[in-house]
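With this grant's support, we have settled on a layout for protein records. One resulting record is reproduced below.
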Amino acid sequence: MKQQLRLSALAIAIASTSTAFAAEQATSFEEAVTGGDASLSFRYRYEFVDQDGKNKDANASTLKTRLNYKTKQYQNATAFIEFDNNTQVLSGDYNDVLNGKTDYPVVADPKYTEVNQAYLDYAAPADTLVRYGRQRILLDNQRFVGGVGWRQNEQTYDAFTLVNTSLPDTTVILSNITNVNNILGKNINGENHQALNISNKSLSFGTVGAYAYLLKDISDTYGARFSGKTDLDSLSLLYTLEYATQETDNAASYEADYYVAEFGAGFSGVTAKVGYEVLGSDDGNYGFSTPLGTNHKFNGWADKFLATPADGLEDLYVSVSTKLAGPKIALIYHTFDANEGSKDYGDEIDLAISQDFADRYNVLLKGAAYSQGDAGTPTDTTKVWLQLSAKF
């Protein structure tokens, strides 16, 4: 489900730490270490997948455990560490991409234990925060740089990041990424990626942003984004416009464009949106790609278009969401077509029902049903998830 542009979650996470990021200082190193905050969370998920062309259905039952600790700030410095573990519970009948069970559909949640994040923060002068180490980087709506937080193994980055808020209503984020720890615990080529994201909230009716994502030996992407909300009595108008252009770093130097237009309205507790997203093609040879994005959020939850086809992709979607019945309910319909040529890539309907309990617990029931279009497009796929979460 598409979401409005937000201030980078990285910036939100650190916004409580210099004058822009100032925090109460520990009086000693010992107090900084012993007086910090710890948290523990669990996320159990059952995922069922029925996919045409596979001999067996996938039944994945996994439990993700997360433990983290953050010190108090001492001499403007803070340390954070986070451990994750994902293990199978009862059923392991699925292809996690690493276990060789190719008779089953893919559920990309392999077993693992790792340091998910480990970084140092320093609240520097001129409203600047410096972060070094393995970290979460979530920029804008995560279309181009994100954490793939839906999967049990989150994508994190070994990076040096600067966040500056010295200009009025403006956040500038610059990251030098040296390694990408992806959802399979492997590395994406990350010797020297550069991510620059600038957002300005001075307009009363929206946020304007610009970005440059220079991924070494992969592609260079430049773009601009506008997203906002206007309240008119009992009606809220929602809107997003974005454009980006991309060139690959290979010898072919393929070029492709990206754009999205989304409009919606909220009234009496119900929000409805319609959007049109295009990942363009270079004459059918290459489709605009988002290798660091949280792609599960886009183009349908069945994950049939995590990689853009060479003919590109056009996604026309409609969504309705509400909390009037108590739980949060979201219903989304997608219709997919090639950007180059006239191929019909099929359609999909997604449904999610979520409810929080006692500020610590959440239950989620979620489903996706993708129907094939023309021959050669992804095969019919049905997915169902039941998820239980707890945070302490």
About this structure: Residues 1-9, 11-18 have pLDDT under 50 and may be disordered. Residues 229 and 238 are 5 Å apart (CA to CA). The chain has one domain: 9-391. The two ends are 27 Å apart (CA to CA).
